[in-house]
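Good morning C.,

I know you're traveling, so I'll keep this short. The sequence:
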Amino acid sequence: MMATTHALAGLALAAAIATVSPAFGTVAAVAAILGGLFPDFDLAAGHRRTLHFPVYYWVLAAPASLVAVFAPSDLTVVLAVFLVAAGLHSVMDLFGCGLEFKPWLGTSDRAVYSHYHGRWLAPRRWIRYDGAPSDLALAAMLAFPALFVFDANATIETAVVVLLLISIGYAALRHPLARLGEWLLARLPASVVAMVPEWIASAGEQRRSDQQRREQ
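The C-alpha cells, ready to paste straight into the viewer:
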C-alpha cells in the first residue's frame, strides 16, 4: 500500500482519539502521521524488514496505550499513537502486495518480515499493489474521518488534503513511474546499481534481459 494510505490510517485512529479527548487531537494526529510513515523509512535498506515489526510494535503499543488511558499526557498519547500507527502499517502490508518492483505481476511471496516468526509472511493481495485503484479508494475512505473531525484545525486538515493529493498523483503515475525506473536502471553503471536495493535492481536486470532477447 502507499505510504500515504498508512499515514491516513493512522489519522483515522487520531480522529477517534480527538472525538473522545479533543485536547489530545493535534498531538495524536502528528504522532499518527509519523508512526504511519515510520516503517517505510527502511525503503533503501532492508525494506519491510528493518523497520517493519508486525508483532513487536503491538507488544510495545499495548502497555503504552494503557499508560495513555490511565495517565494521559501529550507524551504518553504521542508514544501510544505512534506505536499503534507503526504496528498498523506493518500489519496492513500483509493485506497488500509482495515486495517487488512491479507488484501487479504477483510474483513475490514476501509481504513483510516477522522477526517474531523468523520468516517472511506471504501477501494476501486484497490490495493488488501500491497505487492500485483499490489502494486509492482505501486512502480516500480513511481520510474522511480526519477531514470531518479536524475541520476546525487548518494545519491537520491541510495535511490530510496534501496526503490525498499525493495519493491521487501517485496512483495516476504508478505504471509510468515503474517503466521509467526500469528504463533508468537498465542504463545505470553497474557500480551504481550495486548500491540499489536488490528488489529494485532486479527490474533493471529484467529489462536488459528482455532487450537482449529482442536483439537476438
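Safe travels,
E.
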